[in-house]
Write a structure and sequence with these properties.
- With about 210 residues, the chain is of the alpha/beta class.
- The protein has a domain of about 140 residues: Rossmann fold, CATH 3.40.50.
- About 45% of the residues lie in helices and about 20% in strands.
- The longest helix has 16 residues.
- The model has no long low-confidence stretch (mean pLDDT about 90).
Length: about 210
């Protein structure tokens, strides 16, 4: 696609059960592509070691979260493991209008809400672990959660995986490099869709006039 053809940005969702590798894939995609940025969610959970407010999440209390939700400032919101998460509307809408893509690391609940709010802008990818044993191994290797939390995440994984038919693309994340290449291919393909190339008519008109 010629750089002179303006296109509308897209919302790329990566969802998976916790520990399947979506965060690693998201980081790889962001590092290799300058035209996609992570949507920074608001959350009521406490920051984990190494996380920065405003960069990883906007950390807010329950009252502030509720006020944002009631004012319609969130594109989607969900309660996960006793904490609330949501996507601020304004920065996403600005990015899409300017032809920039936005990456979402959210669960199936949030994805359903985005589907209702902006289906035409949405590309949904679900990441599956290769085996249940590998999923448990990855959760334990993170050393961020207690054994009880790991057990809760494993217990919830089956329900989360059951929502895979709601997604456009499915990736079994056995090898991170191969999976990242697949996500990049999906993004390239979706960017080239005619409907997203909002400047295509003018480009073709100019091209035909020059022939």
């Amino acid at each position: 696609m010629s750089s002179s053809i303006h296109r509308r940005g897209l919302m790329l969702v990566l969802s998976s059960p916790s520990g399947a590798g979506k965060t690693t894939l998201a980081r790889g995609l962001l590092e290799g592509d300058g035209n996609i940025a992570m949507s920074v969610s608001v959350t009521t959970r406490k920051a984990r070691p190494g996380e920065t407010d405003g960069q990883d999440y906007h950390f807010v209390d329950t009252q502030n979260f509720g006020e944002m939700r009631n004012r319609g400032e969130l594109l989607e919101h969900a309660k996960v493991f006793d904490n609330y998460y949501g996507t601020p509307r304004a920065p996403v809408e600005t990015a899409l209008a300017e032809g920039r893509d936005v990456l979402f690391d959210i669960d199936w609940q949030g994805t359903q809400q985005l589907q209702e709010a902006a289906a035409d802008d949405l590309v949904k990818v679900f990441i599956l672990p290769p085996t249940a044993a590998e999923l448990e191994k990855r959760l334990n290797s993170r050393a961020q959660d207690s054994a009880e939390v790991v057990a809760a995440r494993m217990g919830k994984a089956s329900d989360e995986i059951s929502h895979y038919p709601e997604y456009d693309y499915i990736i079994v994340n056995e090898d991170a490099a191969a999976s990242l290449a697949q996500v990049q291919a999906i993004l390239t393909s979706e960017r080239l869709k005619r409907a997203r190339q909002t400047g295509l008519s003018d480009f073709v008109k100019t091209l035909r006039e020059a022939l």
